[in-house]
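PROTEIN DESIGN WORKSHEET
SECTION A - STRUCTURE
LENGTH: 350
TOKENS:
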């Protein structure tokens, strides 16, 4: 596939082992085959949620550490939502607020404080005209603070985010090849599609005959740039499709694939034993890869691969960041541990 400079590569998308029916399993075979292991299972779907249209194999990876999930709701602080107390401001039926300052005093108020407050009340208009209300001075003198009527305003739920670190140390050459296929699968699934037969079409069918005639008349004698500016949102169709054909640049990007995450207990012989956690559709936001450990890199090979110049890293730290596409409401959460259509179903951890 040729990659011209300053353009976007297009071509055929092919996942590792997409013609096979087996899953990609890492961390349960070979030296780990006798153990019941907690694993993360990823099932892939296309951008519309159709599993059959994604050719990616399901992935099983041994969990390397703790799993964190947080249910977040956003609140914002607001003040003065029921009004505010500002000395010098008039309120209907109350006159100057400074006339009510006495209510802040108790029997311990001094004659000096009383005198100062009265003078502030008398000069409230002057203070206000200078951009001050005298509020902070009064609060300081009385050691009391006006109520600012603070409240938390609900802003809505947030989408859940998951970050899963995996420490992959293959114990055999075959497992090293599986590790490479898993990494490649995540890289492809998280990337947008740039291929396809997308072309622009004019919207003549949606215009009245008068509007279309006026637009065609306005295009006469104008450059492509001028035509593009004639109508807001109107593309110069022929020119745009020319760019696509001659420059090889796509006019649109297709959404990346989605996935669902499950945490399971897995045995090499019994396969899946128990489901601990199920997510809804998730977007893959980030695939982070650290090759090597302790400031050194070591590679695996066998006689056959050495001949072909094929080597594999012996240790890779991979971090997958996901964001769930479904907002958790009270109704969703109440049915999350029950077998209901469209819900994850019974789970052990939330």
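SECTION B - SEQUENCE
RESIDUE ASSIGNMENT:
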């Amino acid at each position: 596939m040729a990659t011209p400079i300053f353009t976007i590569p297009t071509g055929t998308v092919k996942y590792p082992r997409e013609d096979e029916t087996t899953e990609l399993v890492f961390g349960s075979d070979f030296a780990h085959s006798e153990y019941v292991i907690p694993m993360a299972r990823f099932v892939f779907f296309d951008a519309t949620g159709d599993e059959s249209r994604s050719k990616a194999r399901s992935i099983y990876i041994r969990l390397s550490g703790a799993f964190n999930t947080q249910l977040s709701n956003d609140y914002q602080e607001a003040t003065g939502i029921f009004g505010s107390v500002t000395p010098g401001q008039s309120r209907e039926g109350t006159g100057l607020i400074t006339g009510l300052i006495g209510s802040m005093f108790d029997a311990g108020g001094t004659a000096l404080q009383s005198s100062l407050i009265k003078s502030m009340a008398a000069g409230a208009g002057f203070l206000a005209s200078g951009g001050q209300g005298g509020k902070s001075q009064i609060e300081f003198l009385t050691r009391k603070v006006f109520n600012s009527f603070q409240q938390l305003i609900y802003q809505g739920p947030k989408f859940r985010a998951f970050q899963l670190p995996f420490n992959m140390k293959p114990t055999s050459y075959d497992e090293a090849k599986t590790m490479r296929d898993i990494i490649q699968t995540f890289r492809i699934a998280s990337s947008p599609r740039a291929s396809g037969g997308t072309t622009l079409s004019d919207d003549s069918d949606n215009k009245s005959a008068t509007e279309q005639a006026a637009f065609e008349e306005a295009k006469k004698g104008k450059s492509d740039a001028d035509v593009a500016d004639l109508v807001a949102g109107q593309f110069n169709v022929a020119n745009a499709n020319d760019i696509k054909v001659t420059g090889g640049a796509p006019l649109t990007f297709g959404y990346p694939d989605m996935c669902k995450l499950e945490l399971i207990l897995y045995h090499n012989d019994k396969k899946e034993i128990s489901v601990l956690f199920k997510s809804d559709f998730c977007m893959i936001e980030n695939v982070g890869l650290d090759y090597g450990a302790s400031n050194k890199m070591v590679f695996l090979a066998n006689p056959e691969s050495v001949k072909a110049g094929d080597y594999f890293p012996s240790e890779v730290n991979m971090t997958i960041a996901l964001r769930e596409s479904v907002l958790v409401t009270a109704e969703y959460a109440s049915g999350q541990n029950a077998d209901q259509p469209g819900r994850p179903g019974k789970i052990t951890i939330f």
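SECTION C - NOTES
DSSP finds nine helices and 14 strands in the chain.
The first strand starts at residue 24 and ends at 26.
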